């Protein structure tokens, strides 16, 4: 019995072991706000992994579907040039968002509010621009079921827009909190999480643009 | 020495709705998931009984069939389409709303935070949302029975073109199939929210001293299951959206040109690939098998150690086996598609990787046996079900080795051999894990003890019953009996296996009936069972340090501190044959 215990398991035989500060299981901040903040970031990155998997699945469907279309059935669609403007707007919103965070770090709360509101407005403008791109495609007679390329274009842009909509909701939430002067330390986590998510959406969009223009 | 610190306890919510309906308390949410699963398992089981009845009595008129399904069972005789819809809903409800829901979301929600010494999950509101989203998914799924045409026919795997080409393919393939896809998409959302919570909680909210390698194996399995769910359900969500678009707006992701269905040429689609769906589906579908079974493995490990009064044999090996199974689970989806015209070299790669999963699975099995070896085994009902889990896992796992060989699978594919295999390993093994968990944790969850005599009667009847149902299926499969057909009575070459089908049907009636013993025991014990002490099993993990049931914030304002691994049983020199994880006592050296 004792043999089994020693063979299969570490038994503590000295004084109680020191508390391991690493990975939550021990540090003093495994309690309270520090842990909450860390958990928020973990939750965010885990959520980003899920988002990445959704787009990875769609990409693999895209690659397979494109590969199936021998005999030149795959016809690239003419993509509205406004997409480049939208790309610029989205990237600019990220820059403005970071200027806003820097302002907050240096204690300039009013500047923070202005920049953050600006980034939010740019985010909404991006969505309007995307809607206009769809409108232009529609005017050109290019609907979701018209060609495989148009199907994927609509699916990818819609999936991205759904994520951007979530991001805009978070931006608006922080904005409202800031304007009502309720931006306590707990809300700082919201700011960082929202900003990281927003930057992720930038990267995702750039990836989609490359996909559309190189293979689409 | 560090001592447990105290802090102001969370205030418990007041009012019935906040406390029991829209609760953010992980314990209430865990119980909600448990009862959602309990409802679903009885619903799914009833559907299977109807199928088994029809299979051996295909021409018997049952009046109430005609009342329930005026079109699909006109005159009281079930149509093959109705049989297929029952099969689809049985599989879907069991896989998603029972096997995915109870072991992970039910027990995991209730016990993960307590076992790692946390007050609650990392995101309590998200947790509540994920339960109610799951509930919505179940409502949408069940609604498929009540729309025009009834429930879908395409099976839980929803292969296109059947699932994608619309109402022409069959009565349930209109709104019923749309609701099915919608329900699964909602379920994916709920599972993703749940996975985020499980991972963040495990990574960041462990109490002082609870290092990863001191976590109970249940927590490891919940963590790895959450990772599988996170990666798998995201892919199923994407695939589901594409399938819904094929059905509703006329895209052609999965539907090829030239489909000829029920005397109609389908001209709206061209160029899509049904195999693309299979790849995407099984990329989720195979990890789903492990989503169902891993938490059961955790429960079995926990119970075998506790009731053998021995440390789990090879704790670290168990952890690495869980991680390996999780990792390899994503590399073997192709073994569900050997018959799809797959390149034999790809099939060989998938077969080899499939065999590799046998290694960590065998490690786990040998370690369970090693844990039992020489132990002072306490045959409680919970332990019996854990032993039953090991038995069923081995039986179901061994037939998986046959199916994982492309050459053999060419023969076995779509026969009852497959049905026997996956019911053994994914169905009843996982359900035995749930029974084991129920008998083990019921005292903590409800503050009462379950009746052991009723428990044992239920165990023996169920154990014998499930073997009687599913073992003969392997023989039927060997005889070439195909699955998914509703009636074999006029098939000459299957006449010799019809007595087997009769036997399986009677075994199914018997096994289903004895589940009423469990239901009675569960409900009766909740009200009338003897009061449960704090630690009725003399177990070591943190849930056994708090009252039964635990207070709102689990540890009544105290932050526990952990000094030991999760399975310190029979430690030489210790005063008792178990050392609680929170016990700061120094164990004297025993000379090892």
> What's the alpha carbon Rg of chain B, rounded to whole Å?
24 Å
Q: Strand share of the residues of chain B?
A: under 5%
Q: What class would the helix/strand composition of chain B place it in?
A: mainly alpha
Q: Given the C-alpha coordinates, what overall shape of chain A results?
A: elongated
The low-pLDDT segments of chain B are: none
Shape of chain B: globular
Counting DSSP E segments of at least 2 residues, the number of strands of chain A comes to 0
> Helical residue percent of chain B?
55-70%
Question: Roughly how much helix do the residues of chain A carry, as a percent range?
Answer: over 70%
Largest sheet of chain A: none
CATH architectural name of chain B: Up-down Bundle
On the 0 to 100 scale, the average pLDDT of chain B is 95
Largest interface: A-B, 58 and 78 residues
**Highest-level CATH class of chain A:** Mainly Alpha
CATH superfamily of chain B: Cytochrome c oxidase-like, subunit I domain
Q: How would you spell out the order of helices and strands of chain B?
A: EHHHHHHHHEEHHHHHHHHE
In spatial order, strands of the major sheet of chain B run 1-4
Please write the CATH class name of chain B. Mainly Alpha
Oligomer: heterodimer
First-residue to last-residue Cα separation of chain A: 66 Å
- Work out the count of structural domains of chain B: 1
């Amino acid at each position: 019995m004792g043999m089994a215990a020693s063979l299969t398991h570490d038994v503590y035989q000295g004084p109680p072991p020191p508390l391991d500060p690493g990975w939550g299981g021990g540090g003093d901040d495994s309690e309270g706000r520090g842990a909450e903040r860390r958990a928020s970031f973990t939750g965010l990155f885990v959520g980003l992994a899920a988002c990445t998997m959704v787009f990875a699945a769609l990409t693999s469907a895209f690659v397979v579907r494109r590969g199936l279309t021998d005999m030149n059935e795959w016809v690239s669609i003419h993509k509205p040039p406004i997409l480049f403007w939208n790309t610029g707007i989205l990237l600019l919103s990220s820059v403005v968002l970071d200027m806003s965070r820097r302002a907050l770090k240096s204690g300039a709360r009013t500047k923070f509010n202005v920049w953050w509101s600006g980034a939010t407005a740019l985010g909404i403008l991006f969505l309007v621009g995307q809607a206009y791109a769809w409108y232009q495609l529609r005017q050109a007679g290019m609907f979701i079921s018209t060609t495989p390329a148009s199907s994927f274009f609509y699916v990818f842009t819609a999936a991205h827009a759904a994520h951007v909509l979530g991001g805009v909701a978070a931006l608006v939430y922080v904005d409202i909190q800031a304007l009502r002067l309720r931006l306590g330390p707990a809300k700082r986590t919201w700011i960082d999480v929202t900003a990281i998510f927003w930057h992720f959406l930038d990267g995702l969009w750039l990836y989609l643009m490359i996909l559309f223009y190189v293979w689409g | 020495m560090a001592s447990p610190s105290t802090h102001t306890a969370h205030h418990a919510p007041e009012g019935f709705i906040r406390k029991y309906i829209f609760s953010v308390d992980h314990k209430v949410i865990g119980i909600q998931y448990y009862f959602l699963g309990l409802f679903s398992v009885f619903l799914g089981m009833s559907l299977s009984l109807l199928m088994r009845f029809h299979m051996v009595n295909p021409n018997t008129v049952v009046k109430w069939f005609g009342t329930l399904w005026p079109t699909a069972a006109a005159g009281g005789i079930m149509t093959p389409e109705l049989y297929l819809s029952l099969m689809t809903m049985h599989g879907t409800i069991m896989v998603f709303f029972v096997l995915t829901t109870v072991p992970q979301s039910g027990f995991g929600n209730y016990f993960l935070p307590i076992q790692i010494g946390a007050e609650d999950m990392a995101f309590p509101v998200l947790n509540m949302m994920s339960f109610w989203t799951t509930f919505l998914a179940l409502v949408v799924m069940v609604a498929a029975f009540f729309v025009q045409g009834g429930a879908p026919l395409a099976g839980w795997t929803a292969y296109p073109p059947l699932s994608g080409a619309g109402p022409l393919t069959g009565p349930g393939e209109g709104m019923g199939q749309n609701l099915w896809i919608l329900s699964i998409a909602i379920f994916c959302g709920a599972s993703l929210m749940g996975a985020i919570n499980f991972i963040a909680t495990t990574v960041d909210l462990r109490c002082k001293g609870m290092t990863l390698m001191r976590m109970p194996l249940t927590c490891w399995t919940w963590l790895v299951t959450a990772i599988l769910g996170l990666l798998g359900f995201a892919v199923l969500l994407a695939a589901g959206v594409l399938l819904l678009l094929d059905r509703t707006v006329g895209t052609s992701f999965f539907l090829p040109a030239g489909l000829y269905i029920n005397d109609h040429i389908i001209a709206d689609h061209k160029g899509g690939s049904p195999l693309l769906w299979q790849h995407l589906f099984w990329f989720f579908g195979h990890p789903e098998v492990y989503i169902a079974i891993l938490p059961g493995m955790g429960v079995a490990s926990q119970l075998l150690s506790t009731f053998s009064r021995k440390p789990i044999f090879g704790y670290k090996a168990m952890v690495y086996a869980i991680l390996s199974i999780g990792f390899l689970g994503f590399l073997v989806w192709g073994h569900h598609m050997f018959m799809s015209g797959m390149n034999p070299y790809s099939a060989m790669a998938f077969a080899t990787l499939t065999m590799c999963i046998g290694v960590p699975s065998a490690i786990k099995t040998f370690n369970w046996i090693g844990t039992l070896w020489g132990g002072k085994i306490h045959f409680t009902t919970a332990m019996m079900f854990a032993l039953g889990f090991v038995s069923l896992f081995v039986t179901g796992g061994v037939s998986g080795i046959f199916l994982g060989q492309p050459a053999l699978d060419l023969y076995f594919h779509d026969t009852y051999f497959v049905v026997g295999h996956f019911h053994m390993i994914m169905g009843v093994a996982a359900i035995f894990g749930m029974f084991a968990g129920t008998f083990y944790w019921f005292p903590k969850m409800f503050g009462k003890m379950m009746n052991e005599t009723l428990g044992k009667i239920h165990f023996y009847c169920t154990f014998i019953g499930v073997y009687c149902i599913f073992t003969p299926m392997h023989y039927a499969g060997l005889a070439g009996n195909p699955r998914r057909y509703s009636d074999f009575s006029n098939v000459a070459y299957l006449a010799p296996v019809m007595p087997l089908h009769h036997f399986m049907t009677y075994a199914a009636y018997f096994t289903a009936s004895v589940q009423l013993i469990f239901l009675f025991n569960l409900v009766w014990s909740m009200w009338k069972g003897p009061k449960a002490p704090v630690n009725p099993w003399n177990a070591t993990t943190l849930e056994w340090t708090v009252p039964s049931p635990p207070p709102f914030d689990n540890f009544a304002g105290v932050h526990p501190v952990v000094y030991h691994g999760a399975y310190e049983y029979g430690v030489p020199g210790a005063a008792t044959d178990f050392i609680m994880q929170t016990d700061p006592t120094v164990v004297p050296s025993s000379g090892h």
